[in-house]
Amino acid sequence: MSTYLFNDFKEISAAEWKQKIQVDLKGADYNDTLLWKTDEGITVKPFYTKEDQTKTAIATPKKGFNICQSIYIEDEKKANSFAIDSLKRGAKSIEFKAKTKFDYKTLLQDVDLKNTVLYFKVKFLDANFIIELSNYIASDNCYFNIDIVGNLTSTGNWFTNLNNDHKEFEKIINNVSNAICINVSTYQNAGANNTQQLAYALAHANEYLNHFGSKIANNIHFNFSVGSNYFFEIAKLRAFRILWASLLKEYAIKNNTTHIFAQPSLRNKTLYDYNVNMLRTTSECMSAILGGADTVCNISYDDIFHHSNEFGERISRNQLLILQQESELSEAQNFADGAYYIEAITQQLAHNSLEVFKTIEKGGGFLKQLKEGIIQRKIKDAAEKEQAKFDTGKLVLLGTNKIQNDKDKMKNDLELFPFMKIRNEKTLIQPIIQKRLAEKLEQERLQDE
């Protein structure tokens, strides 16, 4: 392309820009006035130039992202009908969620098992059943969300006990592809900051690599939740791919790609003025796409207080279709390449997370620090800082802690209990509790209705 239009313009360095800004500040300190740091120590500058460009190669998906529909298995025939309808309406993948074993032949009847990307998120550990299901599907496009350490973090207990869980898990790993899922969503929805999420994802996965050996690396995939800090969430997913490649390099593994399943966070979703949740999930899904997620699974605007319903699920799926087709983001996984700001944040997140990861490893590893309560305390500290910002109005959720609609009544519209549930069972470790920011405020408003 011709550059004659720009011949009269002198190239200006970052130092010259900074000098000009310093003059305009009329004596005020540049660093104190214009640089700001996030709670996790990420420095944000007022401007970025090509000097901030890192040109770090990131192994993102080559074929764009899959639109996923999530389905709870309560009735296999109904779930099957919902899956087939969703695939006809634009979904390319299905996530089935189950608390107990199910009739998979009925569930998967007439589903194209070869060309549909399938996910199974199960809250039980049964090696024989999982192996049987995997053999029936017989496709590399099938991913199992099985995470014994993740179950420990979220419930405080193993499925059965440490030895039995590891035996069952090893049996699954040796016979099933894509069987290990690292549920990073747990940390995000509990209030962990981005640096913690990345470090804990890496340390969590490293527990499996240490225990089962590097041969299982290609069996590991990741489940991330994406928050509303738009550019930082793009950078978070990109930073993780850099970190994962670095970790696998230490194990002398050349194939350093991984599969990322992403969904919007629950932490910032609200009961009142719930339509705003659609704006939040749209932004979060876009971050997931531009961050390079392999599969994006949206949640409906009423997910926290309504049972699954046709309208809510259709709207949530159509949000992704609009982003994919009308916004032309069908293959947007590399759009952030060369973006000075995003690349700078990505590098800082990767660097800071790696330091936290090294500290965890020096401290005996992720599992040891979980048992000692260190991980839980770190997440609690971050969550309390975020909660304080929400409570004082520094962090705004529109319609909830700012510009409330006093006529909005929700007491008679709750099909699900939308608040943190207190469990009274005995646990081996303190579980990592997921909680929404608006819960206390919403409970007060419900009482006043």
Helix fraction by DSSP (H/I, runs of at least 4):
40-55%
Classified in CATH, the superfamily of the domain at 66-345 is Methylmalonyl-CoA mutase
Please give the CATH architecture of the domain at 66-345: Alpha-Beta Barrel
Strand order within the widest beta sheet: 6-5-4-3-10-9-8-7
List low-pLDDT spans.
none
Number of helices: 16
Instruction: Write down the Rg.
Output: 23 Å
Mean pLDDT: 95
Total strands: the figure is 10
Helix/strand class: alpha/beta
The biggest beta sheet is recorded as: 8 strands, parallel
Task: Sum up the overall morphology in one term.
Answer: globular
Order of helices and strands: HHEEEHEHEHEHHEHHEHEHEHHHHH
Written description of the protein model:
- With 449 residues, the chain is of the alpha/beta class.
- The protein has a domain at 66-345: TIM Barrel (Alpha-Beta Barrel).
- The protein is 45% helix and 10% strand.
- The chain has helices at residues 14-24, 30-34, 76-88, 104-107, 127-137, 148-155, 162-175, 185-190, 194-212, 230-250, 276-290, 310-326, 340-362, 366-371, 374-391, 439-448, and strands spanning 36-37, 43-44, 66-72, 93-98, 117-122, 142-145, 180-183, 220-226, 259-264, 295-297.
- The strands form 2 sheets. Strands 6-5-4-3-10-9-8-7 form an 8-stranded parallel sheet. It has a two-stranded antiparallel ribbon with strand order 1-2.
- Strand 3, helix 3 (76-88) and strand 4 (93-98) form a beta-alpha-beta unit.
- The chain is globular and about 70 Å long.
- 39% of the residues are buried.
Key descriptive features of the protein:
single chain; 449 residues; TIM Barrel; globular
